Amino acid sequence: MSDFENLSGNDKELQDFLMIEKQKAQVNAQIHEFNEICWEKCIGKPSTKLDHATETCLSNCVDRFIDTSLLITQRFAQMLQKRGGSGDL
Amino acid sequence: MSLANVDKSELMDQVKQQIAVANAQELLTQMTQKCFKKCVNKPGTSLDSSEQKCISMCMDRFMDSWNLISRTYGQRLQREQSKF
């Protein structure tokens, strides 16, 4: 996107447009990632429709993955803090 | 540097289109990998009819799953945003 940033220069409309499209693309990439992870966790043999249990599994999978990511980020920050400036992880 | 209005809207359309193409490519790649894994257990000399049937169901379920996850993630983003 940095080429675009140069190109868009001081054009506010174009800058806003690119920022929004970039955000949308990031959300989309995240959905692809979740789908890849949760498909493996929740889907058995493909059938004629997603049953209720599978739907619940998929949406829990997304929420718990986000929870896990938040928790690990938090704990990891604590880990770094505790070790202070000692330099090694 | 500023762009003429015509160039700008053309550029915007192009950006949108390229993103849509990239998105479709990602879906296609993942769908192929996941459904091959699910449906073709022992690759034979051709795709037999039960494998083909499995693949087309798998494609539909893949899209169902994608859409459900998109909704779930959207709801989560909204909940997180309303916390602030």
TrEMBL record, chain A:
Main subcellular location: mitochondrion
Keywords: Chaperone, Disulfide bond, Membrane, Metal-binding, Mitochondrion, Mitochondrion inner membrane, Protein transport, Translocation, Transport, Zinc
Compartments in which it is found: Mitochondrion inner membrane
A Gene Ontology cellular-component term: mitochondrial inner membrane
Keyword Chaperone appears in the UniProt entry: yes
Membrane topology: Peripheral membrane protein
SUPFAM superfamilies membership: Tim10-like
GO biological process: protein transport
UniProt GO molecular function: metal ion binding
Pfam families assigned to the protein according to its UniProt record, in alphabetical order: zf-Tim10_DDP
Protein's UniProt keywords contain DNA repair: no
Lineage: superkingdom: Eukaryota
Ranges of residues in domain Tim10-like: 17-78
Gene3D superfamilies the record matches: Mitochondrial import inner membrane translocase subunit tim13 like domains
Entries under InterPro entries matching the protein: Tim10-like (IPR004217), Tim10-like_dom_sf (IPR035427)
Free-text comment about domains: The twin CX3C motif contains 4 conserved Cys residues that form 2 disulfide bonds in the mitochondrial intermembrane space.
Family as reported in the entry's similarity comment: Belongs to the small Tim family.
Purpose of the protein: Mitochondrial intermembrane chaperone that participates in the import and insertion of some multi-pass transmembrane proteins into the mitochondrial inner membrane. Also required for the transfer of beta-barrel precursors from the TOM complex to the sorting and assembly machinery (SAM complex) of the outer membrane. Acts as a chaperone-like protein that protects the hydrophobic precursors from aggregation and guide them through the mitochondrial intermembrane space.
Record note on quaternary structure: Heterohexamer.
Protein name: Mitochondrial import inner membrane translocase subunit
Gene that this sequence comes from: Dana\GF19075
From TrEMBL, chain B:
Subcellular location(s) of the protein: Mitochondrion inner membrane
Record's keyword annotation contains Metal-binding: yes
Chief location category: mitochondrion
Stored SUPFAM superfamilies: Tim10-like
Membrane topology summary: Peripheral membrane protein
Cited InterPro entries: Tim10-like (IPR004217), Tim10-like_dom_sf (IPR035427)
UniProt-listed GO biological process terms: protein insertion into mitochondrial inner membrane; protein transport
A single Gene Ontology CC term: mitochondrial inner membrane
UniProt keyword annotations, A-Z: Chaperone, Disulfide bond, Membrane, Metal-binding, Mitochondrion, Mitochondrion inner membrane, Protein transport, Translocation, Transport, Zinc
A single GO molecular function term of this UniProt record: metal ion binding
Ranges for domain Tim10-like: 14-74
Domains as described in the record: The twin CX3C motif contains 4 conserved Cys residues that form 2 disulfide bonds in the mitochondrial intermembrane space.
Function according to Swiss-Prot or TrEMBL: Mitochondrial intermembrane chaperone that participates in the import and insertion of some multi-pass transmembrane proteins into the mitochondrial inner membrane. Also required for the transfer of beta-barrel precursors from the TOM complex to the sorting and assembly machinery (SAM complex) of the outer membrane. Acts as a chaperone-like protein that protects the hydrophobic precursors from aggregation and guide them through the mitochondrial intermembrane space.
Family, as annotated: Belongs to the small Tim family.
Quaternary data: Heterohexamer.
Protein name: Mitochondrial import inner membrane translocase subunit
Organism of provenance: Drosophila ananassae (Fruit fly)
Lineage: Eukaryota, Metazoa, Ecdysozoa, Arthropoda, Hexapoda
